[in-house]
Fold this sequence. Notes:
CATH superfamily: Glycoside hydrolase/deacetylase
Oligomer: single chain
Mean pLDDT: 96
Keywords: Carbohydrate metabolism, Hydrolase, Magnesium, Metal-binding
Number of helices: 12
GO molecular function: deacetylase activity; hydrolase activity; metal ion binding
Protein name: ChbG/HpnK family deacetylase
Pfam family, one: YdjC
CATH topology: TIM Barrel
Helix content: 40-55%
CATH class: Alpha Beta
Low-confidence stretches: none
CATH architecture: Alpha-Beta Barrel
Cofactor: Mg(2+)
Radius of gyration: 18 Å
Order of helices and strands: HEHEHEHHEHEHEHEHHHEH
Amino acid sequence: MPAQSSSELLGFPPDARLLIVNNDDFGMYRDVNEAVVRSIEEGIAASCSLMTPCPAAGHAMGLLRDRPELPFGIHLTLVCELPGRPWGPLADREKVPSLLDGTGGLSTHERIPELLARARIDEVETEFRAQIHAVLDAGLAPAHLDWHCLADGGREDVFELTAALAGEYGLAVRAWLDPARAVLRGRGLPAIDHDFLDSFALDLEGKEAAYARRLRDLPPGLSEWAVHPALGGEESRTVDPQGWRVRRSDYAFLTSPQARELLRREGITVIGYDVVQRAWTG
Length: 282
């Protein structure tokens, strides 16, 4: 018999137009946190990913405790791209030296190649477990694991480690690139059928129209958007001078009447990672 499609593995017809809309970077700062929650409760997003090492992670976890119905995952974090508000590992620094930069914090975005070249997989596991347990020990129930700034973990062994942790804790894993997607399909697990969208890759000019066009052109099967909403207030502009415009424009579209109307008109079903988790653990 032919293998089931990702749509069928998720409980939908094979020709369904399915779209994961996941808010990344929950916990980065409060302006992000508020926008993430509103984008799910009032907009078209369906789940989010929590960064536990960040300064506003505690605030984000408080929002999750007040909303047990809100699907979320853990945005496993080895990179810090906000120099004005740096964060470090959750594990003791002496246990994860290969993950640290010269200041004892996590590596900056531009030094990701150096990080991937030196990171020891046992230390990656130590830090990932610390981040997972920060969530579990807070009494929260995540649905999936993914990575901040590292598509599919950045290395094959990091992806496989994360998949093993997901199996241990009863979670799903995001997979974006062809090699990891092929691995999941070979294991009978759902994976996106089309190229993923990272909202930072879209031009700011004409962004609303670009989002609308992507919805109208969405093919049958499983697609994913990783979006990065923030309210765009004073905090955003101060701590995130390179990213706040992207985040504000994401928030504006996700909560717009146009986005909801397009989904209705096109017959697109938006899902969160709680739906994917059921296929991994069912």
